[in-house]
Amino acid sequence: MADPTDKIEGPAAREFGSMPIDPIYAWGIVLEPVETLISETAGYILELSREAYQRGEIPDLEELEERFLAFFDRLVEEGALTRLPDADPAMGRKILGPRRWLRSVQARISRTLSLWRAQGGPDA
User: Nearest 5°: phi and psi at 82?
Assistant: First the structure.
């Protein structure tokens, strides 16, 4: 199995660990309620981690962006979240922007995979 952390370039994964998972910081997308957004997004990152564990690789930035934008759209369509008018994209870019936001997701997945490997798998 390839080491999924090889896919992460740039700053160490630990530098991304505390970054927000709200999409306003990447694309300026405003979704409410925020508590539901954070909970659902954290759960989705865990789901992506399970997939990465099974596949032996972390999705690239393009795949993650496509999947997250579809994920947020699906939550709005299902009524779990309400999409408000988008924020000025420059606001989110000042904090993270799409690339750094997605790289922080890769780092979270990588950390989860490392933990699972040390424990003997996601269900150990």
Answer: -115, 130
pLDDT reading at 39 higher than 90: yes
Cis peptide before 20 (omega within 30 of 0): no
| Averaged pLDDT for residues 57-71 | 98
DSSP symbol at 85: P
| Backbone dihedral angles phi then psi of residue 32, each to the nearest 5 degrees | -140, 155
The whole-number pLDDT of residue 95 equals 79
pLDDT at 10 over 50: no
CA distance 22 to 86: 13
Number of C-beta neighbours around residue 82 at 10 A:
13
pLDDT of residue 19: 60
> What gap in Å lies between CA 8 and CA 2, rounded to an integer?
13
